[in-house]
Amino acid sequence: MAKRPTVVHTVSALRREIARYRKDGKSIALVPTMGALHAGHLALVREAQKRADLVVVSIFVNPTQFAPTEDFGSYPRTMKTDVAALTTAKADLVWAPSPAAMYPEGFALKLAPEGPALAGLEDKFRPHFFGGVATVVAKLFTQVTPDVALFGQKDYQQLRVVTQMAKDLDFPVKVVGIATVREKDGLAMSSRNVYLSEVERRHAPVLYRTMKTCAARIKAGEPIAMVLEEGRGHIKQAEFAVDYLEARNALTLAPVSVLKDGPIRLLVAAKIGKTRLIDNLAV
Length: 283
What we know:
Elements: E1 6-8, H1 11-23, E2 28-33, H2 39-51, E3 54-59, H3 79-89, E4 93-95, H4 99-102, H5 122-125, H6 129-144, E5 148-152, H7 156-168, E6 174-178, H8 198-203, H9 206-219, H10 224-237, E7 241-249, E8 264-272, E9 275-282
Parallel strand pairs: 1-4, 2-3, 2-5, 3-4, 5-6
Antiparallel strand pairs: 7-8, 8-9
Helix pairs in contact: 6-7, 9-10
């Protein structure tokens, strides 16, 4: 039977564990999560095990990245099954703070990232989001002191924001993006997929299929603006409300108009029923 990972809930307990690892000369990988773990998260754990001696998985539903109208209260919280999955995956340590442990009374700081955080994508629809993400990830980097941190590419703009933040603030951590894990029909794995009704779940893979078609057409030299406009129309026909389907420079997230402006990343966000899905694909 696999050994259950150590689970800590306070900064002091975390620091004691980290100090013990460091005393033994161990390298540390961090996999930040909000719990409700699925195969995509476990793929990050497996990759982390290849890159460091010990793997720390954080589980924290971060209130500062949710707007009052969003799903903080209903976001799935499945700590018992998460720890069981991490036991099977042979993670070493679970850092599971409470909101009060992460943001003690009197906490008065919030990062205000720019650059890729102001690309007119997620930030346009969730202007509060990246300040909350950058703040909590900076705290995780300070608390865990990882040598490497692994993030899924599904949240691509977030990955670019965190990468830039680590660079700008001189965190001694290598930020690594890992390819999106998908269901057999192409739907990107997400903790929010549980919100989809049976009918919505059948429609959901249209996002990935549309991006694949758009990427092939752009790569073949068709005009980007035309391809994207037709792609948005196709997604709307599948009963989605489209927030965006954009082609951006994969590094800066600046808009692109022709293939030579690349490398190009397609990014999409759309809502079906009450569930908002995001995804992205390289051209």
